[in-house]
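Hey, resending since the last one bounced:
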Amino acid sequence: MAEKSYKVISETGIQARPAAQLVNLASQFKSDISIRYKSSTVNLKSIMGVMSLAIAKGAVIDIAANGPDEQDALNKIDHFIKSEIAE
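The structure tokens again:
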């Protein structure tokens, strides 16, 4: 299992557009991929799950991947997150 943490710096947090982009990206991989915020963990391949977290600017999130392509998945998600919403 691979995991990374991020601090959200986007003014709008992770709302509809970036959430949909994250879900679409995560859905390309076979691995199980989750996002954790506070005490809630949801499937990153579920738009409803991601939106239910209501992640705002300044939030610290964790992304975890577990499966055959976990490192590739985490690398691509890392690149997207760092270029779009977090540091």
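The two ends are 21 Å apart (CA to CA).

Sorry for the duplicate.
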